[in-house]
Structure formats: C-alpha cells, structure tokens
Amino acid sequence: MKSGKGVSGLLDQMRDTLAALHETEGVGWETINTILAKDGLKDAALRRPGEWRELGLSARRAEAIVASLDSRRMERRRARWEKTGLSIVTEMDPDYPELLRHIYRPPWVLYYIGRLELLARPQVAVVGTRQATIYGKRAAETLSDAFSHAGLAVTSGMAKGIDAAAHAGALRGAGGTVAVLGSPADVVYPPENRMLYRRIAEEGLIVSMTPPDVPIHPGMFPMRNRIIAGLSLGGRRRGSGIAQRGLAHGERSDQGKSRRFCGARSDQFASQPRHARTAARRSGCPSA
Questions:
Q1: Is the dihedral of CA 205, 210, 212, 218 positive or negative?
Q2: Strands of 109-114's sheet, edge to edge?
Q3: What is the DSSP code string of 167-189?
Q4: For a surface tag, which of 13, 43, 97, 126 has the fewest beta carbons within 10 Å of its beta carbon?
Q5: Does residue 190 have a cis bond before it (omega within 30 degrees)?
Q6: Element spanning 153, H or E
C-alpha cells in the first residue's frame, strides 16, 4: 500500500484502521461516522470489545471490529494490497478528491490502481448504454478524445458500449481517463474489457470503493454511479445511445449539486476531433 509523502506514523496507523473498518462485515457508513465523531481511530487496535461498546456499538459489531484489527489480519490485508497492486486513499487524506467529499455519504476509502493525480484534474462523465450503436460508440469516443485533448479527465464506468468507447477516446489525449468500477478495483468486469482495463491501469486510473474479495452483485453499480457523479464537474447524456444512467437530475438534486451536465445534440458530432471540440464548446461543458 502506498502512503503519501511526509505522512506521520500515527496518520498511517489511522488510515489503516479506517480501511480495516471499511472492510469489516456489518460495519457501515454510519458506524464509521460514529467512531470518527468520538475520536475512535486512535489506539483502535488496543481497544477491547467492551471499549468499542462504550462508543455506542453493538456487541456483534464490537467483536467484528476487534477481529478485523488483529495484527495478523492487518498484515494479510496489506500483503493482499501489495500483491494486486492496490493502493488506498481515504477521506482523511489530502489527495482525496474534494468534489467527492460533498456527496451524500462519501466513501471512507477508495481503492485504486494507476495515476492518482488524475483525481485532481477537472473531470467530465461520459456514460451510457451497453447496447450502443456503432455511431453512438464513435460519437462517445470522438467527444471523449476532444475532452481529453482539452485537458479534462474523462470519467466513466468501464461497462460495455458507450463507457468503453469513452475510455478509449480519452486515452488518446493528455487529460486521461478514470474508470470507476462497481467491482473491486483488481477485478476486471466485464471480462471482455480486459485489454481496456490493462491500458487504463497503465495509463489512467482505476478506482473503486469496493474492498477486495467482495463478490460482485447488482447493488454495486448504483454505488459506482454515485462516485462517477461525485467526481465529475458535468457529464454527457443522451444522443446516439449516450445516456446519463445513474447521474440523472434527481440524483444530482439529492446530492445538492449545481454542476452542469452537457447536452450537445447527437447531430453535432462528427468523426474528426476538431469538429468534436467545436461540439463540446457549444454544449457548454466546463473548459471545453
């Protein structure tokens, strides 16, 4: 696991504890929030179940936390991260993306592979249907190429169809691309995107809030969409099979955002990047 430069031993210990809590079965966002509010990360590994219960936790959660913070389990967790190339950034780190802090219940921990610095760049979301038309995929790829050449990181969910095309287009520019996965960050899903996954891991950034070894289930993907929305200044929706799934107006309102989601018409796109840049500017997207 990589740690930030100049981070004290105490902060490293607290980060490891936060990650352990995040990975503890039965311990959710509210429980961790309660622990943090009561300064419960300090000397957490030394606490007995009764001391955790004094923080308002149930007996079952207290026992689970003590087991999760066992030194041998902590070492196995670090070894697992090292073996798979995973690193973490936590909500208490300065590298944690600022926009994401402002969504409802921001994830305490993000697992990542690749270039963490991409999270500090302005990001635009390009997401959509898995059953995209040829024209739709070409439009997504061309627009994402334009955004990336304009210095924006293109964020998507690495699904088949529009998402995959968006990542491929963004990899051609300097802005780069961020793939937010519903699955753990070290799991290629869907499997047919294996080559794309490898390229993004080498040249871009793969991010997930899902701990390693958690089985894939449908509930992961709405959570992924929340993160895509939280990271992005805006997004491209509709037109040529490009949709804003999970990033619709209602969800943005729930999160209290006033970010602009771009609305260029599908007939504004052309196969040449120069035309795509013109379309991006007309759509009112940030910095385009």
A1: negative
A2: 87-90, 109-114, 205-208, 177-180, 153-156, 123-126, 234-236
A3: HHHHTTSSS-EEEEPSS-TTS-S
A4: 43
A5: yes
A6: strand 153-156
Token code pair at residue 254: 């729930």
Among all chains, which residue has been given the structure tokens 């190429």? 145
Q: How far apart are CA 102 and CA 89, in angstroms?
A: 16
The C-alpha atoms of residue 224 and residue 159 are separated, in whole angstroms, by 11
**H-type alpha helices, the chain:** 9-22, 29-37, 49-53, 59-68, 71-84, 134-149, 162-170, 194-203, 220-231, 249-254, 273-282
pLDDT digits (tens, 9 = 90+) for 91-114: 999 999 999 999 999 999 999 999
Residue 19 neighbours by CB under 8 Å, 6+ apart: 77, 88, 90, 109
pLDDT for residue 178 = 98
From 129, 135, 121, 208, select the one nearest 164 (Cα to Cα).
129
Classify residue 112 by burial, with Cβ atoms within 10 Å: 0-12, 13-18, 19+: buried
- Whole-model pTM: value is 0.80
Residue 3 has pLDDT above 90, yes or no: no
Residue 11 burial (CB < 10 Å; 0-12/13-18/19+)? middle
Contact 27, 65 (CB under 8 A): yes
Predicted local distance difference test score (pLDDT) of residue 281 = 40
Whole-angstrom CA distances from 183 to 48, 52, 101, 111, 152 are 33, 30, 21, 11, 25
Assess whether pLDDT exceeds 60 at residue 284. Answer: no
- Half-sphere exposure in the Cβ direction for 192 (13 Å, CA): 5
Burial of 113 (0-12, 13-18, 19+ CB in 10 A): buried
**Listed residue (92, 97, 94) closest to 233, CA to CA:** 97
Residue 82, Cβ neighbours under 10 Å: how many? 12
